[in-house]
Amino acid sequence: LKIDRMASKNTLSTYHHQDSLPNLPVSPLHEILAKYLQSVKPLTTPESFANTQKLVEDFGKRGGLGEQLHQKLVQRSQEKWSQSNKENWLEEWWYKYAYLAWPDPIPINSNVTYAFLMEVCKPGTDQVFQASRIVSGFLQFKKIIDAEKYPPEMMGKAPMCMKQFRGLYSTVRLPGENGDELRFIKPSNEIIVIAGQRIYALPVERSNGSIHSNRDIEQGLKTIANMARSSPPLKHGLGILTSERRPTWASLRKRLEKDSKNAHLLHRIDQSIFVCVLDDNAPEDMDALGWHTLAGDAKNRWFDKAYQIVVYRNGVVGLNVEHSPSEATVPNAPCTYTLGKMTKMGSEYFDNEPLSENIQPEELDFNLKEVEVELSQASQNWKELSQDLRLTFLILKDVGSDTLKQRKLAPDAFMQMTIQLAYYRMYGSHTATYETGQQRQFYHGRTGTVRSCSEDSKNFVETMQNPTASQDEKKEKLSKAIEAHKKYMSDVVAGKDCDRHFLGMRLLSGENLHPLFTDPVFKLSSTWKLSTSNVPTTYNVGGFGPVAMDGYGVCYQLFPQTLNYCITDRMHCQTTDINVLKKHIRDSVYDILALYPPPSKL
After folding, report:
1. Which residues pair with 566 in a beta bridge?
2. Are strands 540-544 and 317-321 parallel, antiparallel or unpaired?
3. Is 24 helix (H, G, I), strand (E, B) or coil?
4. Which 3 state secondary structure label does DSSP give 521?
């Protein structure tokens, strides 16, 4: 409702600031190298650090390879920016090397998830009714985006790039044998609905572009649910192929497309507005909801679409998001819009229009004879991959961002320090930690890397574990660690992070890699055993799989009265355990807060 009011009063186009956004900077080489050295020190021995220091000095010397590569990067930035279709220097590389070039399956490894809070999407709600309201809300938000009425997002006084919103309803990731293609397609008037492993197309927009009523959409979804229930069970759902390795799926898709009917039906899926899944599972708690939405039954999914809404038999809901076209905060916007309406409207429909049109779904009947063996193999592959994922939420309902602000603790830095302390208590060592830092205040900006493990965080966690350290000493070390983290974050937001810079210089090097990039410390410092992200939300919580096979994914949200962590790992790894890390994070939260008695109410 708030977004509706903002849209109705908004006089600026969603993309009003686009052409005035600054270019992503190329930071001075000496700043990048100093930041890198600072970040690796807590991870290395004195001997290893001394060797790395020599490599950095050689790389950065006047007239050396580093200076030459840096100048090429500056030149690339200028050339990309001066094109008629301007780009920043990183975006082409980022799409390719962060996402599209990877051959691994995209679910769990790349896609992310939102689990909608059960206080909003209440268990026991009729599945079809729940789905109709979520679909209606997402379509209403689409109309706001199409009309360019969604207010430009701001970071303080700085406008943010809104490019990623263009792809919310028009993006599909097509598999390739040598790399995927991210294609932006003008969407049709249909959504794709998957139920009972069968795929249906449901028209949700009229010929004049208006949205069918909530009741009409409910009736269409009810027809699909009845069709799926009355149809004989399928041995395999075609969607399972989207969970395969990308070259495998690309080859199989080509084989399918030799049948002209199959080719036409695949294009209809590509061109659809989004995917809605009516899932037969009934997750009873947030852990189950998170796991089923991030992994779940791939026979009832289509992982290539920008996102798919998954509505379960008991009325709880999640969102699976394909990561390459946007950061997770962007598809969170229609979630906030839709779930915000639901909290205000209770169990009412999203509009007052009566049931007026009988919108007829159509089952997409593929010829799968050519891929029956591969469907069976894909099911086995998915079983192995999905069952290896473990996921748990830590939801603390007696402490939130208000608690931290009362104690003058920077919320994001506090969360990072709880993770650092928990990891050290579990392993007795420090590890390379990735935190996402947004860079959307630049033209087509995406993210930078905040290296959260620092000398100051190291000093803090070791002091916390020192039985002879006083409370004041612990607070002093925490204060320094928080300030160091805030400084690193502000640098990354300003476009000054070493990881994206190093990516550019390595790509420009070709095969002529400087020993700095083959140094074991370089690999150690960018093997993210802790991959973390703060994803601000209002009515949902997020999660993603671990980046390192022997590491963790930790996604977190801060609500005024609640802290949430989503922790994932791989079951096959003998050195990780999400439940042990969860306990240590919980203890770390309360142990750090114990240093700060609650402020007096007087």
Report:
1. 393, 555
2. unpaired
3. coil
4. helix
Edge-to-edge strand order for the sheet containing 307-312?
362-363, 198-203, 190-195, 275-279, 307-312, 317-321, 112-116, 540-544
What does the pLDDT read at residue 233?
Answer: 87
The three-class DSSP label of residue 392 is strand
Name the band, by pLDDT with cuts 50, 70 and 90, for residue 4: low
Which pair of structure tokens corresponds to residue 417?
A: 């320090």
The structure tokens 């991030």 sit at 294
Return all residues near 546 (Cβ < 8 A) that are at least 6 apart.
Answer: 531, 552, 553, 568, 569, 570, 576
CA distances from 378 to 9, 245, 252, 292, 386 (A): 50, 9, 11, 18, 12
Name residues whose C-beta falls within 8 Å of residue 598's C-beta, 6 or more positions apart in sequence: 406, 407
Q: Considering only CA atoms, which of 266, 224, 259, 264 is closest in space to residue 242?
A: 266
CA end-to-end distance (rounded Å), the chain = 37
Give me 24's structure tokens.
Answer: 């992503």
Tokens representing 328 are: 């997770």
Alpha carbons 150 and 411: distance in angstroms, whole number: 28
DSSP strand pairing (317-321 vs 307-312): antiparallel
Q: Where are the beta strands (DSSP E) in 175-270?
A: 181-184, 190-195, 198-203
Locate tokens 């206080």: which residue? 119
Distances (CA, A) of 461 to 402, 420, 431, 525, 591: 24, 7, 12, 19, 11
Confidence of residue 3 (pLDDT cuts 50, 70, 90): low
Read off the tokens for 511.
């095969």
Which residues fall within 8 angstroms of residue 408, CB to CB, at 6 or more apart? none
Of 267, 268, 265, 141, whose CA–CA distance to 211 is shortest? 141
What are the C-alpha distances in Å from 92 to residues 88, 182, 224, 284?
Answer: 8, 11, 40, 42
Q: CA-CA distance, 283 to 290, in Å (whole number)?
A: 9
Q: Which helix (H) or strand (E) holds 158?
A: strand 158-159
The secondary structure of the chain in percent helix, strand, coil, rounded to multiples of 5, reads 45, 15, 35
Is 196 a residue whose pLDDT tops 90?
A: yes
Return the pLDDT at 476.
98
Closest CA to 116 of 147, 137, 98: 137
Q: Tell me the mean pLDDT in the region 31-51.
A: 98
Instruction: State the Cα–Cα distance between residues 42 and 423, nearest whole angstrom.
Output: 14
Closest CA to 423 of 529, 564, 522: 529
pTM of the model: 0.97
> Is the pLDDT confidence value at 599 over 80?
no
